[in-house]
Write a structure and sequence with these properties.
The chain is α/β, with parallel strands linked by helices and 235 residues long. It contains 7 helices and 9 strands; from the N terminus they run E-H-E-E-E-H-E-E-H-H-E-H-E-H-E-H. The protein has a 5-stranded mixed barrel. Helix 5 links the parallel strand 7 and strand 8. Bound molecules: 1-O-phosphono-alpha-D-ribofuranose and uracil. 1-O-phosphono-alpha-D-ribofuranose binds next to strand 5. Keywords: Glycosyltransferase, Transferase. It catalyses: uridine + phosphate = alpha-D-ribose 1-phosphate + uracil.
């Protein structure tokens, strides 16, 4: 057991999907896993372990933001020996050609958080995805005909900015979309020598202001989860 996870030792699989929302963790377990068992109840941040196409796998809610998610990622790696960590989340598009419902594979993650200023001072660290997971996810998404973009994303500490247009500087440098966790996940994965990837579904658009309905989000979300599971488990 760790401070924020009350799973028994060995109860969490080596491969873990990481949605921000604990209810999405429940949805993933109930929709995709065989024999899911609730492994965490601390703070209502539900996590489940079961099997998917015969292989052991877990899903763990992380909460929103780098600060919350890094607590879970840290404890999953150091307390439970997790080796493959794949975030599955929603994101806002920064680019006209990246549409709502599209899938984004985060090759790298910029951040406005201080997590790496604390570590590296004035030197800049570039948090990146595991290439094997990234390549597998890309191949699977292409085979299934999903519109998929691979590139840089922004992991922001702030959902509501005083200046809405602040995103344009990132868009000008080719950043595809914004979410709130990947840079922390990639940094911790590198530190501990484990594999990480972030798979995102575009849920809203900062340029066109388009949004998806809850039903649309659900359908695209399931496609993203299947890509993440198959890539992480080498299926
Ligand atoms: O859909 P999830 O995984 O929660 O991810 C995105 O949604 C939340 C903001 O609404 C942030 O956590 C952001 O990263
Ligand atoms: O605009 C968005 C959408 C999802 N998640 C974010 O962090 N921002």
């Amino acid at each position: 057991m760790t401070i924020h996870l009350n799973a028994e030792p060995g109860q969490i699989a080596e491969t873990v999907l990481l949605p921000g929302d604990p209810l999405r963790a429940q949805h993933i377990a109930e929709t995709f896993f065989e024999n899911p068992v609730l492994h965490n109840t601390v703070r209502g941040m539900h996590g489940y372990t079961g099997t998917y196409r015969g292989q052991r796998v877990s899903v763990q809610g992380t909460g929103m933001g780098i600060a919350s998610s890094m607590i879970y990622v840290n404890e999953l790696i150091t307390g439970y020996g997790c080796q493959n960590l794949v975030r599955v989340g929603t994101a806002g598009s920064y680019q006209e050609h990246v549409h709502v419902r599209d899938i984004v594979l985060a090759q790298a993650a910029c951040t406005d958080s201080n997590i790496n200023t604390i570590r590296f001072g004035a030197k800049t660290y570039a948090p990146i995805a595991d290439f094997g997971l990234l390549a597998a996810a890309h191949r699977i998404a292409q085979e299934r005909g999903h519109t998929t973009h691979v590139g840089n994303i922004m992991s922001s500490d702030t959902f509501y900015h005083d200046d809405f247009d602040q995103y344009r500087i990132w868009a000008d440098y080719g950043v595809l979309a914004v979410e709130m966790e990947a840079a922390g996940l990639y940094t911790l994965a590198a530190k501990h020598g484990v594999k990480a990837l972030t798979v995102l579904t575009i849920s809203d658009h900062l340029v066109t202001r388009e949004e998806t309905t809850a039903e649309e989000r659900q359908v695209t979300f399931n496609a993203m989860v299947e890509i993440a599971l198959d890539a992480a488990l080498g299926l």
